[in-house]
């Protein structure tokens, strides 16, 4: 069998390994410029560099190898805008009807608002953690001759935009999907007429 010698120039990694289709392996340590013997390869010789990403193509033992990116696509945000908005009210008490002297009302239920997501945020690294809840026992004064109940709402920090799947080689957006993320920051109680 013919012996083939390859010189591997390694500059950025401690150990470089290249598997060939016929099962042989090339390896060299950083800083070493020793030739590596490969048995059973009947083809031309190429010098392969550790950080090379294009152009190396060879037909060795009936198969081909090419340098490729591990992941050719990245998800990135596009056309992002942020703003604040209120949620709708949710009931946290029973009804009350006051007389001429007025009265008070106390929350006897709790409601929880969590982060809401519409659309796809996959690959964007957006956290969906966090929630805001009302408390039982919270009391509000009620004026005279009112028919009301207590309700609770939250203030959202809203982010909306497009989740763009970008080809990192060409820089082009190959697909995009709209997303909206609402994260609750704080809440407030209010009296609502019934």
Describe the structure.
The protein has 194 residues and is mostly beta strands. The chain folds into 2 domains: 3-66, no CATH class; 73-193, no CATH class. 0% of the residues lie in helices and 55% in strands. It has strands at residues 3-7, 15-19, 25-29, 35-39, 57-60, 63-66, 73-86, 90-91, 96-97, 103-106, 112-114, 116-119, 131-133, 139-142, 147-167, 173-193. The strands form 6 sheets. Strands 7, 8, 9, 12, 15 and 16 form a 6-stranded antiparallel β-sheet that branches. Strands 1-4 form a two-stranded antiparallel sheet. A two-stranded antiparallel sheet has the order 2-3.
Beta strand count: 16
Structural class: mainly beta
Question: Could you spell the SSE succession in H and E letters?
Answer: EEEEEEEEEEEEEEEE
Count, helices? 0
**Overall average residue pLDDT:** 78
Helical content (DSSP H or I, runs of 4+): under 10%
Globally, the shape reads rod-shaped
Summarize the biggest pleated sheet: 6 strands, antiparallel
Rg computed from alpha carbons, rounded to a whole number of angstroms? 33 Å
Distance from N terminus to C terminus (CA atoms, Å) equals 94 Å
In what range is the share of β-strand residues? over 45%
Low-confidence stretches: 1-32, 40-56
Count of distinct structural domains? 2
Detail the topology: elements first, then pairings.
Blueprint (H helix, E strand, L loop, with lengths): L2 E5 L7 E5 L5 E5 L5 E5 L17 E4 L2 E4 L6 E14 L3 E2 L4 E2 L5 E4 L5 E3 L1 E4 L11 E3 L5 E4 L4 E21 L5 E21 L1
Antiparallel strand pairs: 1-4, 2-3, 5-6, 7-15, 8-15, 9-15, 10-14, 11-13, 12-16, 15-16
